Amino acid sequence: MGTFGEIVEPITRSTWEDWDDEITDNTALQWQWPLDSADKIDTLFILEGRYMSECVKMHPKFHLQLKNSILDANLHLFELPSNKYVCTIKDYNLLQSSEIVELLKPLLTKSKDVITILTKPLLEYQTASQLYSPLVIREVTTSTKTQKLCEFKFEKLEQPNIVSGVAAGVTCLREHLELPATTLVYYIEHTEEYQTDEIQQILEKLKIIDSICKTKVNGLLNSNLYI
Amino acid sequence: MVKTASIYSPAQIPVIGYDPYDLKSSSLSTACEVYKCDSRKILVLQLRAPLVHKYANGFLKNLVSTFKEKQIKDVIILTSSFAHEKKHILSSPFRFVASEGNPHAENLRKAKLVAHEENTGEVKVFGGGFASLLYKICLDEIVPSMILYKYCSEGDNIPDAYDMVHNLANLIQIFSEDKDLLSQLKQPVSWTLLFGRPPPQDIY
């Protein structure tokens, strides 16, 4: 659903690399420290997007221990008690998605379960329905189903909606490894504000955060609007 | 055509969703998938996302060596080029480049397709992405190959897709001749919402 008067054109090739020009390949991404993790991981949570990263950052981190980072991709890996890991990532280059997934591969191959949660602007949600909802939650799962989200009932992501980037790469790799993974997509109107309780509720239920935080960040300070 | 494989590689920008041809399906579709048709002995490699330049060469070399291993007789690369690159405005918007030993030479002549013009000695299809690189690798590996491309503008490319299929059908027999060509094509669901969602009812 676009803002009234907004022209929504199909995405052009502008976000891709220009194959007709000389392309300088970016330097390789790397972990800040050698990656060290348990031999078997119960669950790996990957939280993608600014909202998710900030949400984790704003909560007291008594139980979240920073393990490692990929600074150039704004990726941070935390360890939770009971053999679970949380990875937050925001503002990365889409072209580096597969490289990031390769760096996460050692964790992805030994995790019993992988759950990725990401936010996307509601504008990008494609549906023929004329009904309006400020929040749409959809799920994409591998053929091998995850057990962790059984208590939640999410609708599957309808075609032609797609997920791209790290969340997609992680789910795709797990599908090829015949291991379970679930991607939850939260289509929200304002992807950077802190009033989306539904996201915090699931983070709380998954024991990634302790409680629902009511703090709102002044969006004006982060915007380009000057008064 | 039946989906037979899905390919994972760091050379692809990852994309996932559910089967674009079956709305009820719960099977994952990824950035790179292989479809086959036994009766026509055709394999289609569909890439739904651009390749990452850094890893493309290795991925495509691997792909072509797999083609050789599987004894695939020839490769046809379908792509597009920027409409503004078309020099002769009254000519057909289709161009082709074919390697020596290409089995479609006779059909190309019959279809009166225009050959790609190149003065630099190296095939370059502007806006065609990795097509030129894949063609070059096929030449190096001595796999008969051909690029068929159309000059396209940005926007609704559905008519271009139909045009491409029509031209391809003139070169190789991919459809039943007893039925109308259009009736044998299946549109992906994404084509129905090419310009986004319907306008919100609240605005009226």
TrEMBL record, chain A:
GO molecular function: proteasome binding
Example of a GO cellular component annotation carried by this entry: endoplasmic reticulum
GO terms, biological process: proteasome core complex assembly
Top-level taxon of origin: Eukaryota
Entry keyword set: Chaperone
Family that this chain belongs to: Belongs to the PSMG1 family.
Protein name: Proteasome assembly chaperone 1
TrEMBL record, chain B:
Family annotation (PANTHER family): PROTEASOME ASSEMBLY CHAPERONE 2 (PTHR12970)
Assigned GO CC terms: cytosol; nucleus
Organism for this UniProt entry: Pararge aegeria aegeria
UniProt-listed InterPro entries: Proteasome_assmbl_chp_2_euk (IPR016562), PSMG2_sf (IPR038389)
Name of the protein in its database record: Jg1436 protein
One GO BP annotation of this record: proteasome assembly
